[in-house]
Amino acid sequence: WYQRRVRGNNIFFSLGFDMKDHYGAFGGDAAAYAAIAGDLRGISLYQSLDTEGLHTLGTVIVDYRGYRVVGQSIISGILSRDQEQSIIYGSIDNGKTINSNDKFGEVLRSSSKKLHLKEHSVVGGDGTQHRLITSYDCKGIIGNDGRHYLIDLFRSFAPDVFALGAPLENYRGEEEDIKPMFTCPQTAHKLATLRAELIEAFACYRYVLFTQNMSAKFIKAKGERESKLKEIEESKENSEVTEMKEKDTESDNDSGCSVESPISAKPQKTFSESDAKEILEEIKSSGTARQFGSVTDTEFDMRYNPDIYTNIGSNDNEDDIKHDKQIVQEMAMFLSDSVIVKFVYELKTMTQRPLDAIHLSDLMHGRGINMRYLGGITKALEDNQEKNHNYAVCLSAVVTRAAKQAFKKYIIDIPSQQLGAAWHIS
User: Fold this and answer.
1) Which of 79, 169, 186, 336 has the most beta carbons within 10 angstroms of its beta carbon?
2) CB-CB contact of 249 with 259 (8 Å)
């Protein structure tokens, strides 16, 4: 029964196996297993936004005896029509044919800015070009109830270049090689993504840098403008004084007496609100925002392309593709050289003291750190392992997770009478 879906009590049940070679390009069964958890994270993210007109499926995951079972609610009317006819957005055959829909695109645009998703170009295997906001394998369906449903959300986040084994490129023209402080082992599938918390932290970090840069440029331009205005006013005053002296001299020669002519006080031109607006427009037009990851030159709007490290075709120009790769790579570098480094410092100084592996997982996820980086974090704590409680917690979590992965494939074949021992392992 694991080769087909089962329906019971109006719930679809299926296993985390690549039944119809849908995940062949991403890693087969390993990708199918990981896609279920990624789909659940994507569903939770979209539900937290509560976008009007956009709906997701009720989903639950059960891990038992090495199997991963997913149960999902049924879309209204989906059983009365072919699956190919139901999909109006995205692809159902790994990009061979891609669909796009204007109404679905309008619904997704309202949430794309909050999720930092970039609208990008994709080209299907049949040569047709489409503009999508989500990844191409994310599917959109309109049910018989008129609702817009979004399914298969396992690639709703930016890809992790370290886990994918993608080459690191130097986009800023620096001569030295890029050497991240923390990396992770390459995964058996190509669905490894960064966490939503990390993406949001990166966007906030870049926005702070952008505002600081804008403020520095504004202060500098304001000082230059005020100095220029002051020089102009001083020059005018000097010329007026010279003119008045010449007139006084002529008057003295004519009348034979000295008459002092008062200089009328004129209002001086100072830095005004119009000058400030003019400076801001000049700074915006210089493309400052794009330097910090924005997709536009005039305002900060950081977005990423979820399809940038896939084999799907694209008609975007080379500069846009380069920009998309740079953003995703800099997210991973931000995780490695900033977030994880700070977290390791907190563990070493006992600023953070996880009680157990579950608490440790919560701390890491809250900072946007994937659990696949736990090995590198544990290794960084080896130098003070004798006096550090945190090292023992991290090492225990590593051993437990490694044992679970090793025994998972053996639990599947354990006879029913030996399930007692298998239950503790799983």
Assistant:
1) 336
2) no
Q: Which two three-digit tokens encode residue 336?
A: 């490695």
pLDDT by 10-residue block (mean), the chain, 426 residues: 65 81 81 90 91 90 85 83 73 86 86 90 87 90 87 92 85 65 89 94 92 82 73 63 58 52 52 68 71 80 90 83 90 94 92 91 95 93 76 92 83 72 55
Structure tokens that stand for 120 in this block: 């990008």
What pLDDT does 2 receive?
A: 43
Residue 21 Ramachandran class (φ > 0 left, ψ -120 to 50 alpha, else beta): left
Instruction: Specify whether the CB–CB gap between 148 and 56 falls below 8 A.
Output: no
Exposed / middle / buried, residue 262 (Cβ in 10 Å: 0-12, 13-18, 19+) = exposed
Please return the burial class of 306, using the count of CB atoms within 10 Å of its CB with bins 0-12, 13-18 and 19+. Answer: buried
Question: What's the CA gap between 419 and 423, in Å, rounded?
Answer: 6
Distance, CA of 196 to CA of 304 (rounded, Å)? 12
Type and span of the H or E element at 15: strand 11-15
CA 108 to chain centre: 16
Q: Measure CA 421 to chain center.
A: 42
- How deeply is 190 buried, as exposed, middle or buried, from its count of CB atoms within 10 A (0-12, 13-18, 19+)? buried
- DSSP symbols for 359-408: HHHHHHHHTT--GGGHHHHHHHTGGG-TT-HHHHHHHHHHHHHHHHHHHH
**CA 157 to CA 161: how far, in whole Å?**
12
The amino acid that residue 107 corresponds to is V
Answer yes or no: are the C-beta atoms of 381 and 391 closer than 8 Å.
yes
Token digits for 47? 């539900």
Nearest residue to 323 via CA among 296, 286, 285, 283: 296
SS3 content of the chain, % helix, strand, coil (to 5): 50, 10, 40
CA 245 from chain centre, in angstroms, equals: 69
Nearest-CA neighbor of 393 among 369, 370, 377? Answer: 377
State how far the alpha carbon of 93 is from the alpha carbons of 20, 33, 99, 365, in Å. Answer: 10, 18, 11, 33
* Reported pTM: 0.83
Token pair 């990844």 is found at 135
